[in-house]
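[step 3/7] fold_predict: job queued, chain A
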Amino acid sequence: MNNEYLSTGFPDVDRAQNQDAYFDCLTLLDSLEYYREYKTKSYELLQLSPGIRVLEAGCGLGDDAFRIAQRIMPGGKVIGLDASAAMIEKARLSELAAQLPVQFQQGDVKALPFPDNSFARCRIDRVLQHIPQPQKAISELVRVLKPDGLLLAYDNDWETFSVASDDINISHIIENLWSGSFTNSRIGRDLGDYFLYAGLSDVRIYPGTSVITDLATADKVYNLRETVQKAVEGKRISAAQGNLWIEELIDRTAKGSFMAALTAYTVVGRKRSANLRAPR
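[step 4/7] structure written:
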């Protein structure tokens, strides 16, 4: 076990005993085909062009900020903001940080350190699932967005999380324990409402489903073994039941029938022009 429970640890990486667990998780996710595809699609939906200024809120290790920067050259700039000083330090140490128009800084997405109307585009990816009162973060992103600018958010609907198993009852216990540990387990399905409440127009919603087909990868992403241990410690299942469930997943991986699935949503909306008012 990595001694870090990712669902509850990401909001405060700087206090983690094993920060590498979070760095490794982000690097792993960024390497998976599904994640690379939805990220590329998000850049396209943002209608990026040379010369614009973009905010990547919750930038993590900076991978998305670097890719966006390549799409807004020449003349553009990306600000990568993250609550974690450790994440910002890692992003700044990347070789790309010196080659591309990207600036990294620590900050709170619910109290952005930027004036109104500072960015042509804002993007936030898998951050809102971790923070209380996500509407405040969305309102802040809209505040710093220029009129007619675009905001894009991607986030998970953890209530759709599932792991294929013959023991449906044990699977439900593990799925619910993991999903319920997130601050906002259903944020993905709520994004559209939050965007409309914030006054954005032309709101579009794009669903996507991640499917992981081997236990080793799923365990690194979803802490399956640690969640089993938590279920045992909480007397929700016995140690024997937990061991049998993991053994079945090992067998499924060997046979090619392992599956862990999760639905998420990409939502994009436009800030109304200054001469238009949001409906009440």
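[step 5/7] annotate
The chain has a mean pLDDT of 96.
The beta strands are 53-57, 77-82, 102-106, 119-125, 145-163, 201-212, 260-270.
exit 0
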